[in-house]
Amino acid sequence: MMSVARFERFYRRAAGVDVDKEDIRRHSDFVGRKLRDLLVVGQAAAGANGRDVTEPFDLPITKGLQETIHRFRSLDTDIELRPVLEQLAVLPPLDRPLSDSSIARMPEIAGGLSLALARAFVLFDPRLANPQSRHWEQAFRTFDLLL
């Protein structure tokens, strides 16, 4: 229950929207899929550069996502969502291991993805108060185009 309250507070602070338990499940699925996508591309970059281990610089972190990760850090000071994201950032089976520094970055990357997702809702509809299934699907399709 503690994590549900933290996610609710996070979404209110990040974008001014209210979420429920079902939305948190959607959020968790989204973060897992996008982390997996980033890791697949990162592994390919490591392999192309002749490395057996995926380093943080192999991950395709765009300028926008990097800025969102930085904003997440300052927002998370009050909310303390990072411990929850550490549990959410479950790594899929990989062909190449991640370096310790890559593993350490996963919760912050998950946080940046979370903040970007939350803010996407109000970009689509600035008056949105409670995202519905169609809003989640629209956000997912948008991120799938970009990440």
Structure description:
α4 crosses α5 and α5 packs across α6. The longest helix has 28 residues, at 21-48. It is built from 6 helices and no strands. It starts with a helix and ends with a helix. The model has no long low-confidence stretch (mean pLDDT 91). The protein has one domain (2-146): Histone, subunit A. The protein is 71% helix and 0% strand. The protein has 147 residues and is mostly helical.
CATH topology: Histone, subunit A
CATH superfamily: Histone, subunit A
Spatial shape: globular
Count, helices: 6
Which CATH first-tier class would you pick?
Mainly Alpha
- The percent of residues in helical segments reads over 70%
Give the arrangement of secondary structure elements:
Layout (H helix, E strand, L loop, with lengths): L1 H14 L5 H28 L14 H17 L2 H7 L11 H25 L8 H14 L1
Question: Summary?
Answer:
71% of the residues lie in helices and 0% in strands. With 147 residues, the chain is an all-alpha fold.
Key words describing this protein structure:
147 residues; 6 helices; Histone, subunit A; mainly alpha
